[in-house]
Amino acid sequence: MKILVANLGSTSYKYTLFSAGPDGFQPVAKGKYERVEDHGEVIEHSLRELIEQGHIANLEELNAVGFKTVMGGEVSGCRHADQTVLDALERTAPLAPAHNPPYAAGIRQFARLAPKAERVVLFETAFYQWVDPTAKRYAVPKAWYEAGVRRYGFHGASHKFVAERSAQLLDRPDIVERVQNLYAGDLPVFEGKPLRVISCHLGGSSSVTAIRNGTAIGTSMGFSPQSGLPQNNRVGDLDAMAIPFAMKHLGLSLDEVEAQLTKQSGLLGVSGVGNDIRDLKDAAGSGNGDAQAALDLLVHEIRRWASSFLFDLDGLDAIAFTGGIGEFNPDVREAVCRNLNFLNLKLDTARNADVMGTEADLSAPGSAVKVLVIPANEEQVIATETYRFLQRQA
Fold this sequence. Notes:
The structure is a single chain. The protein is α/β, with parallel strands linked by helices. It has helices spanning about 40-50, 85-90, 100-115, 135, 140-145, 155-170, 175-180, 240-250, 255-265, 265-270, 275-285, 290-310, 310-315, 325-330, 330-335, 350-355, 380-394, and strands at about 1-10, 15-20, 25-35, 65, 80, 120, 195-200, 205-210, 215-220, 320, 360, 370-375.
């Protein structure tokens, strides 16, 4: 079986072609386009490349296309990319303007170019569908809640990969099986030994998710991807009253407030330097106090969100780092894990300093909590879940 995973950004397009074999899914081809103005054009070009390079003989050899869609409000899960999905993507586009419109356009383009290939979406929100309803509520009027103002959660594919891979590394086959069947139907009650993991997806967009027995019980991101930790240029959490205050005292319009909170805030807004952590570290090393403040704030918010889940988790077995910042920045990992003696969490600082982008156990001997680096592999998750969905539909 050949499954293409399509990753569409506002001005980018990435794809990975997977082939199913006796050893599972293997990536056989990858491509990336930047500064995209017409997603339809680059999708068509990428499909021609796959044929010309011999990865597929023709488009009829392409069995399925999997999409890592961000959000569709109450439409979630792993499902066919039908009209219901397209309507949901367009309805919630104002909450995910960089992703929903390109995905809707991409789904339509694949339907036109490769109509025999099944089109399957795995929403980023799907991993959070079993979170307790109380943990999804905001203290807003009921009409707001019924209109869809609630905590959805994002980065679901990444955190799901951490849930499955951490269970494998901690020798918990019962949890591995549970994670593999999350989207197969109703979630059965778990009665085994608990496994409690905090997953830190840290990159241009960051979130912290609490995982108990393979399922999410809470996350830092909420109603939209603008929330939670400070993002590269998005604000993260903010007191709602700051908006009318800024409009009144700074003379800003609502459109100007929205633009500043979504494009000029986060690490960029605090540092005044940029939104890439490498630039912030260089500037901080040269004595730029604002750049150091941005780095300190990111660590503070990671620790704040991670600690907020400890009561509901009833302890901790592992903390995992993934994403570009989590995988390639030992100093961030060390700062997050500092002074956690009450958890008996001990970081092997020498080992931590050597690990850059590879899977590793960074916990020191005697640590009651494992410290893991698990490189992100969202494309593998999309391909695997697309395959599992089609097998269930057969």
